[in-house]
């Protein structure tokens, strides 16, 4: 029996022979039957000749590697193989449609270096803020850290610390007022 007269069951038998025994002769017959049909299918979908040949090779390699996942009760061998081919073509289109990098894209341009005087001022400001936070009463500093370092809402802080919501709000307001007075020169 040559490759041109394979029926549905014979194709399924060939895929299963590849899956169970790694049968190279069965794969060669499968390749001889399916490769030209896959290429014609891909060409009809608008794939270039070179891309179609490349995709056929990828599909048949996938058939060799994934033959064990074929189940003749769910689909025919040709349906299974053509589905792989369609998916590979979609992957190819997605890869080709991704735009290249634009060197002028602001996200790719490094930030301008910070002038030394600005860096010194920022460091001074940051150190002043750290010192001011360290100088807060512990209950205010604790709530401030929960609110800003851990991103908790006032209600969550009240629940975590077992405090009334009003107390949380008052302590945070007192902390902000103290920090504002210390940080006034930097605002």
TrEMBL record:
Domain named RNA polymerase sigma factor 70 region 4 type: residues: 128-179
Database matches in InterPro entries: RNA_pol_sigma-70-like (IPR039425), RNA_pol_sigma-70_dom (IPR014284), RNA_pol_sigma70_r2 (IPR007627), RNA_pol_sigma70_r4_t2 (IPR013249), RNA_pol_sigma_r2 (IPR013325), RNA_pol_sigma_r3/r4-like (IPR013324), WH-like_DNA-bd_sf (IPR036388)
Gene Ontology process terms (BP): DNA-templated transcription initiation
Gene Ontology terms for molecular function: DNA binding; sigma factor activity
Source species, domain of life: Bacteria
RNA polymerase sigma-70 region domain ranges (all copies): 30-97
Similarity-based family: Belongs to the sigma-70 factor family. ECF subfamily.
Record-linked NCBIfam families: sigma70-ECF
PANTHER family in the cross-refs: RNA POLYMERASE ECF-TYPE SIGMA FACTO, RNA POLYMERASE SIGMA FACTOR SIGZ
Protein name: RNA polymerase subunit sigma
């Amino acid at each position: 029996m040559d490759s041109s007269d394979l029926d549905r069951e014979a194709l399924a038998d060939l895929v299963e022979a590849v899956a169970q025994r790694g049968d190279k002769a069965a794969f060669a017959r499968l390749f001889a039957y399916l490769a030209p049909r896959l290429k014609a299918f891909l060409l009809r979908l608008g794939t270039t000749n070179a891309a179609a040949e490349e995709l056929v090779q990828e599909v048949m390699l996938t058939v060799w590697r994934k033959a064990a996942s074929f189940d003749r009760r769910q689909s025919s061998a040709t349906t299974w193989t053509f589905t792989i081919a369609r998916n590979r073509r979609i992957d190819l289109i997605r890869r080709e449609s991704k735009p290249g990098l634009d060197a002028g894209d602001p996200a790719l341009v490094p930030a301008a270096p910070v002038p030394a005087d600005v860096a010194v001022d920022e460091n001074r400001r940051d150190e002043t803020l750290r010192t001011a936070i360290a100088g807060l009463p512990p209950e205010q500093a604790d709530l401030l850290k929960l609110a800003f370092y851990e991103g908790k809402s006032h209600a969550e802080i009240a629940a975590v610390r077992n405090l009334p919501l009003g107390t949380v709000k008052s302590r945070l307001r007192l902390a902000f007022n103290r920090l504002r007075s210390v940080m006034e020169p930097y605002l």
